[in-house]
Design a protein that fits this description.
Blueprint: E1 2-7, E2 17-26, H1 31-45, E3 49-60, H2 62-77, E4 81-85, H3 89-98, H4 100-103
Helix pairs in contact: 1-2
Length: about 120
């Protein structure tokens, strides 16, 4: 798995947006790495929003879903919006079945990115 994160040139109204891009498998061998990167992004940038880009992710298991949930919770604790974008059809189905698509702001239309959700504290 490869993870990159960068400040987006398109900030959200409340401040900076950081895009975390995941390439490869999100499984038990990599889930801690992904969750750690989300926590590092929060600590380094204090963004208003984090967008997890799954366009190049190839697989996700329950520990990967757990890492996304942990990232969402860390973002919520920091009053940071958290969205997941560009999941493959298989990922989209898993997120929908588990109810996580609503939590993560995944748009129903796969041609569009998920909306930015504001986390209320």
């Amino acid at each position: 798995m490869e993870i990159t994160s960068e400040l987006s040139p398109e900030p959200v109204p409340a401040g900076p947006l950081v895009v975390v891009t995941i390439k490869g498998d999100i499984d038990y061998t990599h889930s801690d790495e992904m969750a750690g990167e989300i926590w590092n992004v929060l600590a380094r940038h204090a963004p208003a929003a984090i967008r997890i880009d799954l366009a190049e992710a190839t697989f996700i298991d329950s520990t990967g879903l757990g890492a996304l949930i942990a990232g969402y919770r860390a973002a919520a604790d920091a009053s940071c919006a958290f969205t997941v974008t560009a999941p493959s059809p298989a990922f989209r189905r898993v997120l929908k079945i588990t109810g996580l698509s609503d939590l993560f702001g995944v748009d129903e239309d796969p041609e569009r990115s998920g909306p930015q959700r504001t986390v209320e504290r």
